[in-house]
Task: structure prediction
Amino acid sequence: MRCLVVDDEPRLRRVLVRLLEGEGFTCQEAGSGLEALEVLEHDAVPLVISDLRMPQMDGVALLREVMHRWPDTAVVMVTAVAEVESAVACLQLGALDYVGKPFHLDEVRARVMQALDKRALKLELKNYQQHLEDRVRAQARRIEELFLGGVQALAEALEAKDAYLKGHSIRVAEYAAAIGRQLRLDSNALDTLSLGSNLHDIGKIGVSEEVLHKRGSLSDQEYRHIMEHPVIGARILGPLLNEYGAIIAIVRSHHERLDGKGLPDGLKGDQIPLMVRAVTVADAFDAMTSERPYRPSLPVERALNELRDGKGIQFDPEVVEAFVRAYPSAQLPIATPPPRSLRLPENVVPA
Result:
């Protein structure tokens, strides 16, 4: 094993070098802290034995530099008997041991081997922690995959229940993401938009199939029953996504209106989060351009006019304009796009 002996007294330095070479070490020498740093910059070593009192850069300053730049290096300090307090302070800074002058060779040998044993334990612990962190990350990814797979299964179960909703959530997610890009939202917000859009109608699982599939106009009672789905969806997802308030807000509030006449909470203006306003426009457009049991689909241009007419009343004007910019000349991807892989936002986005 290689080591570096640092001492401004050549005689003491040579004594330590001979001792360590007799134990099988390959030694380099330095007469000061600055000289030791130059050696380490060219060839870092596992072990440094350094005197405490040296000109230019003393042992404490050298120790600080070594711990900062080469933290896996074992450092043993050499001190005078009267400097024990300073030696203990060095232990607090990261030195693994110290020997006092005048020293006994057997003591030096024992302290060096003890320091190397401590270094080996530190490296073993560091390696264990690194692999543990890797395992934890892999486990977290697997848990996320299983969770999102379950969520996707819920969405697919909803579409299987209502053929008229087939592809609706995927298209809404595409439209909402396009709006988000026009609004220059960051990637974390776009992930939130995508997942929230995919789940926004999940509460319709709790709505009567008879009402969902009814042809013709809905009665007031039937309409109120269908409009319970945002609350049902938020209640279903709340325990699963309790740290992702922005996603729950999309599910609960995507039928709110800018004028405060929406459902379920009558939110108004800026009380409705921007990402919810984006999903509201995307959801309304896809609903208008898709066939429903109670009405045929609207032409794209007419649906766009409906969005424009609703600016400042039902829809956020900035969001409507972002949607129109995203799809100029009404060249919209009406066909259902392939589903994207869902993923949880990396950071929690507040509601």
Q: What stands out?
A: The mean pLDDT is 86.
